[in-house]
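#lab-general

N.A. 3:47 PM
ok so I finally got the sequence cleaned up, no stray characters, all 143 residues accounted for. can someone with queue access submit it? mine expired

B.Y. 3:52 PM
send it over

N.A. 3:53 PM
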Amino acid sequence: MRFWPPGVQAVTDGVPIRRLIGYDAGNRDQVRGAVKPRPNFHYAYPLQLWGLDREACETVIKDAGLPNPGKSACTFCPTCKPHELLDLARQYPDLAARAVAMEDNAQPKLRRIQGLWHHETAERFRVGSRNGPQVCRCKKAVI
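B.Y. 4:20 PM
back already:
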């Protein structure tokens, strides 16, 4: 946000930034709770507002003639679970490499945590894990 010119301009102008959170209206997402309020941001939960649970979301997507995208999240989402990062490396090695590069770039500025996911992402993609294909230590290929 601090480096995205339209966002910086909006904050400078006192215009709140709207963030849309993809929590659905199902029981699992209902227990998550709201994102912690922050100055300059307004959070909205459109899937909950529209009453769409995961099954309804899949139906809307199917009816639109689109393939089921699976779980959606930013490829660098700090709430990714280890198996989701491994799936990312298997299915989208280029995006996994970008997530690791993002963490490498942030590393000099991190003070309280090891990595963007509270543990180094490269460690989660460690060679030799029992969880299937991994990004190699050079962070350039899935093995």
